[in-house]
Amino acid sequence: MGKSDKKDKNIKNTAEEAKDMQESVAEGSAESMSAITSDMANEATDNDLISGENAPMVLAENLVKIYKTSELEVLALQGLDLRVERGELTAIIGNSGSGKSTFLNMLGGLDEPSAGKLFVDGKNLFKLTAKEKVLYKRDTVGFVWQNNGRNLLPFMNAMENIMTPMHLTSEKNKKERALELLDLVGMSHRKFSRMNQLSGGEQQRIAIAIALANKPKLLLADEPTGSVDRKTADYIFDLFKRLNQEMGQTIIIVTHDVELSKKVARVVAIRDGKISSERILKEHYSNLGNGEINWMEEETQDEYSIVDRAGRIQIPRNMLDSLELKGNKIKVTCEDKTIMLHNPDDEQ
Ligand SMILES: Nc1ncnc2c1ncn2[C@@H]1O[C@H](COP(=O)(O)OP(=O)(O)O)[C@@H](O)[C@H]1O
Ligand SMILES: [Mg+2]
To answer: Is residue 25 part of a domain?
Structure first.
């Protein structure tokens, strides 16, 4: 047997292994699934993606989350991959129930996956001890929710609310820092107001200041504009943009507001628990100021589909519908580096 024959055989074996792997995933065997995901994570760990100087802020690999209740199992995340660099502002959009909050809660250290790996700021989130996790939640991430009841203490004023998360830290000038944060979110004039004296939008601005109190490396916001009016939503969204541009704050915002997301440099879309597509701001728009663009009217971003490590992509629903397929088979051809998808019935 020649050297090249041997090589071919190896390639064939690898292909067969990959096929076996796909089949076992298709069968939904939890055991084989976690074996596969841990293999894949090891690959990434090996090439120094995780903790080197150039390590991303977030690296999610093949995250799977299954919620089990007595009647049913919900597959909330189905092999989600995402990489977020330091200093990026990323928006996550997707229909209700697509897994956005599940993913954000994992990043916030509030939930654990059924399989997969998640690294934030070089830390393997699922290997943290209980004590490390408390510190992670206090120092590495800040969290803003749609419903600020989770963040705010109603009987304290704005200033006291902002100082609360600093109590257990070594921050020396807690008052100064609180005043700085009030200024940052444009709420200096309300520092002695209690929460029930503030509007929903103002409470949300205080919630953002609280989330920033301990200088988190990663700021997470789950539908922060979900229950405020249009004008307030614009203000809050622009505040996040300013934090990112002027202070280099890494931010991930979940939003269902497609219009607002048009302002962001990078928008990833989750469909059925997996990243399906990404939109990137066109260069022309990234250099323009807020007032110079009619964000609602213009196509500010380019859209890309995401290819996962097994070569799968999600075809946009409207394109798939336009093929009017009868079954689940599609004809794939490639010409001049262009791949085309056809309805097999159209060829006869
Ligand atoms: N604690 C839970 N128990 C059972 N199912 C859940 C739980 N949390 C979320 N789910 C389900 O997981 C899926 C994803 O939910 P979620 O992440 O909240 O979506 P989104 O934030 O995109 O609306 C949904 O089908 C939801 O019903
Ligand atoms: Mg949600």
So the answer is: no
> Looking at the 3D structure of the chain, how many domains does it have?
2
Task: Residue 175: give the domain boundaries.
Answer: 48-311
The answer to whether residue 34 is domain-embedded is no
Q: Give how far Cα 132 sits from Cα of 77, 115, 271, 273, Å.
A: 25, 21, 32, 28
Residue type, 308: D
**Is pLDDT above 80 for 49?**
no
CA–CA separation, 325 and 346 (whole Å): 10
| Residue nearest to ligand 1 atom 16, measured at CA | 99
- 76 close to ligand 1 (CB < 6 Angstrom): yes
Q: What is the pLDDT of residues 152-164, one digit of tens each?
A: 888 899 999 999 9
pLDDT average, residue stretch 311-335: 89
Share of the chain above pLDDT 70, in %: 81
Give helix 200-212 / helix 174-184 axis angle, nearest 10°.
130
Pair 202, 334 in one domain: no
Which residue type does 46 have? D
CA distance linking residue 8 with residue 166, whole number of Å: 61
Whether residues 326 and 205 fall in one domain:
no
In this prediction, residue 263 carries a pLDDT of: 83
pTM: 0.82
The answer to whether residues 201 and 284 belong to one domain is yes
Ligand 2 centre from 183 Cα, in Å? 30
Which CATH number does the domain housing residue 192 bear? 3.40.50.300
* 301 close to ligand 1 (CB < 6 Angstrom): no
